[in-house]
Amino acid sequence: MKKYLFITLSAVLALASCHKNDPVIFDSSFICFDLVNSSSISIHQNAELTGEYWIHLSSSTRETPLTVEVSVSPGDGMTEGIDYELISGSKINFLPGVYNMPYRIKFLRNPIDLEKDNSIYISITEASDPSVTLGFPGPDALNRNITITKYSF
What we know:
single chain; five-stranded mixed β-sheet; 39% strand
């Protein structure tokens, strides 16, 4: 009898927890940084390279282009033209059928001041379609911002 009670309770608990690992399904459009496919989040001060930070559009099929505005704010230890150059500018255009676009920054070889903020802060600030959520849906708007930091050993 105890054996059947144990099996029944185990089955009930197993069925009750089935929804715990169900995938989250977003039914609205959103735009975010794809941090898995981005090339680098930390850059050595002696590196001279172009970083690619991919922006992903999650949406049903669009018939019109979507323009996304991106802002770049350097810390007080970073200077455009000396530490980095913006290649992509402030607007990224997603044509119909395109769901991933790179945002590119060229990092220049330049020593850093360890007493200063040697980071660049990139944010998705606006989309031409107001129904597109900036960052992952939810109160935290995850992956709407990315921070790239120059470092030395």
